[in-house]
Description:
Elements: H1 2-18, H2 22-55, H3 75-85, H4 88-119, H5 123-133, H6 142-152, H7 158-181, H8 186-194, H9 199-207, H10 212-227, H11 231-236, H12 244-253, H13 261-281, H14 283-295
Amino acid sequence: MSIVAAHGTSTTTRRRRRAPVGGRTGPWRRIQPVVVILSVLLLIALPLWIIVVTAGKSQAEALQPDLALPSRWQLFENLGEVWRDGHVPAAFGGSLLIMVPSVFLVLVLGSLASWILARRRSRLSSALYAFAISGIVLPPAVVTIVLLLRQLGLAGTVVGMVGVYVGMYMSTVIFFVTGFIRTIPHELEEAARVDGAAPLRVFRTMILPLLVPVLSTATILICLYIWNDVFYAFFVVGGRVDTLPLNLYNVASAGLYLNNWHLIFAYVLVMSLPLLITFVLAQRKIISGITSGAVK
Length: 296
């Protein structure tokens, strides 16, 4: 009896030690989601609010950007002036001219490389995969890129800028797609090969349709990177091809928008609106693609 009682007492003591104190952890568990949601809303909503209200003010009211509402909204007038005098259509076309082929080539080449790396299990394949995804954490050397493009005669050209973006963001596609392909059963490809399908046909008909979620995620992320890039575009195509970030930098530094913060914020709103709408509409697909490609 004494042994049983002692065993029961020790078990009860361990349970009491493991049980959290309700007064300390209970309220925090209920408050934590609210704190996280409020923090996210503060970090996202506050900058967006400043952009919108400043873009809707007059020049005098926008000299010192703050959270106050404008005395009279002139948002559409400012957007129209930016579109008309800020060379936005040409810069918009330049951004599309660089972004569309870059994203297309990254997705095609990256998905093909991921298919090969996912299906071949060897030390060489593992080393190549590690080397391929190292570009995620290792930044490219700008000076080396510019010198190489000058040697190739591609400095200041759209082709050179596309090549830089393809090399930079290939690692992102390989990281997401390789993990996803490893979850696809080999039997699907073997059945297609038995029917006489060539490797490219197997990839096009069997693998590529299954990659739609993860490729959609990669497309949105890479579009965000390229659309908002000003650093690499400045060194590669600056002064020869206008993109939206480069054009904003040029018109602001040239004095066209000097002290005209309402026009600068209106330009930022015009530049950010397409990607903001795309992100809001495709946020579920982004999350599903990230989890399927990275977690599985």
